[in-house]
């Protein structure tokens, strides 16, 4: 038996977490390196920009980051 879970299983586990459970998805992203991409896709599925500070963080940390920008492709809903 391999010492890790196959990607299909971890994707299913993370996919079962509601996109509104941000703290749970953040914890999933910290489990191991392999869980990070699926967790980020779920985290970016629904974005809430409630304050100017939140908008500025989105621009500074996501839009200006080559690594983070692709995750915005999975965004399905933005709440202002």
From TrEMBL:
Q: Which domain of life is it from?
A: Eukaryota
Which InterPro entries did the record assign? F-box-like_dom_sf
The protein depicted here goes by the name F-box domain-containing protein
